[in-house]
Amino acid sequence: MVTEHEENRRDFLLLTTGLVGAVGVGGAAWPFIKSMSPSADVLAQATTEVDISSISEGQMITVPWQGKPVFILHRTPEQIERARTDDNASMLDPESDASRVKNPEWLVVLAICTHLGCVPQPVGTGDYGGFLCPCHGSHYDTSGRIRQGPAPENLPVPYYTYKDDSTLVIGKAVG
Ligand code: FES
C-alpha cells in the first residue's frame, strides 16, 4: 500500500527531476549533486526564475539558487491553516506565518537546516506537518519554522518577488 507520504515524496521527486534536474533530498545528497553542477558562473547568478504554473497544490520542488537548494511549496489550505494556528504555539524562533510568506499559498525557504546545514526532507516528513532534517532530528513546520530538535533557527526565507502570476524570481538582480 502506498502511503500519502510516499505519494508526496514520489510527486516531489518527479517534479524535481522534470523541472529542475535531480536534486537530492537526503542530508548528503546536495553536496554530491552540487559537485556536478555546470559552472561557477552559473551558480553565482544573482537570481533564479522559476515557472510555478505547473506546481499543483500540495506539491513542492527544489531549485538551485546561488548554489543553494530552495524549497518552493504550493501549500494546501490545511497547511496554511496549520501554520497560522501554530502562530500561537511556543516557538524556538518566534515568527508569524504571515511574516514568512508573500502569498499564503507559496512557501519559499532555503532548504538548509540551521543546525549543521543538511538538506531537510520534503514537506510532510516532520512531526508538525513540515520538514524533517534527518541528520539530527530537527522538525520544521509548514511555515519552515523550527519546532523541535537541535536547529536554533527557522529555515531562512530568501529575497524573492513575483514577476507575474506564474513566475517566481528568487534573489535580487545585480546592477
Ligand atoms: S543538520 Fe539538521 S538537525 Fe543537524
Structure described in brief:
The chain is of the alpha+beta class and 175 residues long. It contains four helices and nine strands.
Would you give an account of this structure?
A three-stranded antiparallel beta sheet has the order 1-9-8, with no helix packed on it. The longest helix has 17 residues, at 4-20. Residues 8-29 and 32-40 have low confidence and may be disordered. It has helices at residues 4-20, 29-34, 40-43, 77-85; strands at 48-51, 60-65, 68-74, 106-110, 131-133, 138-140, 146-148, 160-164, 167-170. It has four helices and nine strands; from the N terminus they run αααβββαββββββ. Strand 6 (138-140) and strand 7 (146-148) form a beta hairpin. With 175 residues, it is of the alpha+beta class. Helices cover 21% and strands 23% of the residues. The protein has one domain: Rieske Iron-sulfur Protein (3-layer Sandwich), CATH 2.102.10. The radius of gyration is 15 Å and the shape is globular. FE2/S2 (inorganic) cluster binds next to loops. FE2/S2 (inorganic) cluster is lined by residues 113, 115-118, 133, 135-138, 149-151.
